[in-house]
Amino acid sequence: MYPTVAVSAIDLGQHMAGGAYIESGGRQYEGKVTAFVLITCFVAAMGGLLFGYDLGITGGVTSMEPFLVKFFPVVYQQMLDDSSTNQYCKFDNQLLTLFTSSLYLAALIASFFAATTSRLFGRKPSMFLGGLFFLVGALLNGFAVNVEMLIIGRIFLGFGVGYCNQSVPIYLSEMAPTKIRGALNIGFQMMITIGILGANLINYATSKRQNGWRVSLGVGAVPAVLLCVGSLFLEETPNSLIERGQHVKAKTMLQKIRGTNNVDEEYQDLVDASEAASKVENPWKNITRRRYRPQLTFCTFIPFFQQLTGINVIMFYAPVLFTILGFGNDASLMSAVITGGVNVLATLVSVFCVDKFGRRLLFLEGGVQMLVSQIVVGIMIAMKFGLNGEGSFNKEEADILLVFICLYVAAFAWSWGPLGWLVPSEICSLEVRPAGQAINVAVNMFFTFGIAQVFLSLLCHFKFGLFFFFAAWVLVMTIFIAFLLPETKNVPVEEMNYVWKSHWFWNKYMPECEDLVAGAYNNFEAAPQKEYDVTQEAAPA
Ligand code: BGC
After folding, report:
1. Where are the transmembrane segments (predicted)?
2. Does residue 315 have its Cβ closer than 6 Å to ligand 1?
3. Of the residues 301, 321, 393, 485, which has the maximum number of CB atoms within 10 A of its CB?
4. Mind listing the pLDDT tens digit for each residue in 267-280?
C-alpha cells in the first residue's frame, strides 16, 4: 500500500512549468471495467439531463408569444413597441432574464445543503432529492396558472440542479476505475448536452402551438422521474460507505464494482483517506487551509473560467444571435442543430480522449481553438455591423460565420465543458470533496446567472468587442491551465496529493510528508523509488 512515487522525483517536479506528468499512471489497482459499474454510472449521469434540459428549454419558452402574453404581458407589449434597428441592442428586459436566471441562484444555495447531505447521508440520497426537487419544479411549471407558481417551480428546479450537480460528478469519480474515470465522469456532461439538444428540439416542435410552453416545461418531469427511480436502484460509493462507518459493505461493494476479490490495496487506501478525513471537524473551514490551496483555487477558478468562455451566450441566446446573423425563420432550428448537435458529438471526442491524452491537452487545444474562433467571429461582426450595429450578412458570409461558431462550440464541448465538472470532482481528497464540489457548483451557477443577466446589455455596450472580451478571458484561462494545472489522468482520486507534491508551484503549499492529511501519505518517506515520471516539461527560467 505504499505510494509509488519516488521522493527524488518530487524535487525535480519543483522545477517544472505546467503540469507534473504522471506517465505510468501511478498506482494501478487490480480490477476490471464491470458492466455493473458502467450501468451504475449511466444511471447516475442522468442527473446531467436535468441541468441540460433546463439550460436548453428556458430561452425558447421565454420567447414564445402565448407564454409572454399569459405571464409577462407588460414585457410583451414593450417588446412589440421596440422598434430599434440596432442589431447590437436587442430588446432587454431584466425582469424576464431574472425569471430565467433565478434558477441558477436557487441551485447555488442548494449546492451547499447538498454538500452536507452527501457527506452525512451519502451521494445517493442527494441524487434522489435532486430528481425529486426537479420533478416538483417541472410539474409546477407545466401546470402553472400564475407567475407565483412559475417562480416557485423555478426555485424547485434550481434546488434539483444544485443537488444533482453537487453529487453526480463526485459519485461518478468515486465509482469509476481510475483508468477510465475521465470517460465515465464525462457521462455527466454528455447527458447535459443531450438534455440541451432534446430541449431545443422539443421547443422547436412546441413553439407553434398555443400551449406548447406547457409541454416544453412539463417534459422536464421525464428525466426527473428517470433519475428518482434510477437512484433508488443505485449503490452507494465505497468511499462514502467507509466515510459513514460501513466498512464491510464498502469492501463488498468495491469487489462488486471492480469485478475482483482482490481489492485490499484500494480498500486500504480508502480507509486511510477516510480516517484522515474523519479528523477534520469543519470541512468548510478546512478547505480554506493552506494545504488545500490548489483544490480551493481550481474549484473556484475552473467554474469561473468555464462561464467566462462565453458558452452560455450561445446556449441561451442562439436564437437571437442567429436571427441577427441573418438566418431568418430557420434561426431556431438552426440554433438547435448548432448548439445541440455539435455539442453532443464533440463531447464524444473528450470521452475517448480524456484518459488517453489527458486533461491538459484537451484544455490547451480547446482553449486555442476557442480563441481563434472568437477572434474570427468578432472581426466578421465588426466588419459587417461596425459601431452602429446596422447591416446584415449574405448567405456565404453567414455560412462562414456558422463554421466558426461550430468550431467554437466543438472546442468547448471537448474541453472546458466536460473538464469543468471532471477536474474539480477528482482533485479533492475525501475530507474536502463535498465542500470543493459545492464551491464548484456555486461559482458555476453564480456566473451562469451573471452572464445570462448581463449579456444583452453587454452586447449593446461592447458591440462586436464582446467577442474579443470573451476571447481575452479564454487566453487568460489557457495560460492559467498551462502553468498551474497538473495532469490528473490515471491518478487514483485518493492519491491526488502526490500530484500537488510533484508540481513546481503547488509543491510549496504541501505540508511536510508526515503531515499530509490522507493516511496513505503518512508513509510517504517509506515509499519505494519508482514509477511517477515527472521529468517531462522544461523548467521556467
Ligand atoms: C456548462 C453549462 C453549459 C453547458 C453546455 C456545461 O458544462 O456548465 O453552463 O451550458 O456545459 O454544454
Report:
1. 33-53, 95-115, 127-145, 151-172, 184-206, 212-234, 298-327, 333-354, 361-381, 401-423, 435-458, 464-485
2. yes
3. 485
4. 998 998 888 878 87
